[in-house]
Amino acid sequence: MSRRDPLYGKLVTIVGGSGFVGNHLAGALLGRGARIRVASRHPETARRLKPLAQLGQIQAARCDATRPDSVAQAIAGADAVVNLVGTFSGDVMGTICGGARNIAQAAAAAGCEAMVHLSAIGADASSPAGYARAKAESEAVVLDAFPQATVLRPSVLFGEDDNFVQMFARLIGALPVLPVFAPHAPLQPLFVDDAAEAVAVALGAPQSYGGKIYEIAGPESITMLDLNRRIAASQRRDRTFIPLPDGVSALFAMLPGTPMNTDQWTLLQAGNRPSGALPGIDAFGIVPRPLGLFLDRWMTRYRRHGRFNEKLVG
User: Fold this and answer.
1) 304 CB contacts (<8 Å, ≥6 apart)?
2) CB 58 within 8 A of CB 68
3) Bridge partners of 28?
4) How confident is the model at residue 48 (pLDDT cuts 50, 70, 90)?
5) CA–CA separation, 46 and 186 (whole Å)
6) pTM summary value
7) Residue 155: closest CA among 100, 221, 218, 92
8) Are 22 and 43 in contact (CB under 8 A)?
């Protein structure tokens, strides 16, 4: 923790900060000496972050991003704001776009020095996916209300506690034969801690990064089929993967109770790589880490006999 860090002692409100990305971002900001306020509908989940902080360095606030008064209270007194609000269900446009508008307007009214808005690769006002349209519209309303905001469009994020790699890991660990949706869809997954670092850098230097949109992604491009095969190999399991035709995948996504809805299928089918038309993660001085750096270690718990697997096989 360096007192020379531009975020040292600053109060950063993380709206929607009690989830996967918020937990990792909180760690990055606390390490820089920032004070953080985790604002979400369920702030009690932020208690697990307490051991990472010094006394008085972290607080939680109940906040509904769709209510301007609730957002204003959560942002009051903050030096900087991060918007992590997102959803694939319910009123997607109202939650993502309406929440972003409320947050940006409150940040401007509070005189915040910096704001980072987390969007997504694939944000597109003309997309058939409501999620992608909402993300595109949210960027517009944020930059309108807070012109010096930094907009980050990350690719799919992975981490040891994610619900992406780990979801496939659980399925591969349990089933001998698995279907693969959009098997040839290209992905460029980004380590969540690298994304968190980009947010922290942008918050600390709004004069350099404000008012711009960045597409941030990992260092390697893989397909969904590649990803499944790599997970199986790291688990030391022999699995059969069946690439599904797009029509079957689309029908599956329309069924209730499935782990993937229509918007998620549409985005997956389109792929998840940067366009190359916008600056990337290298603009933040970050060398992104590949999935392969972590996969063997993370998959140990899914192996038969766990960490004793190698000795038993040998």
Assistant:
1) 236, 237
2) no
3) none
4) confident
5) 34
6) 0.93
7) 218
8) no
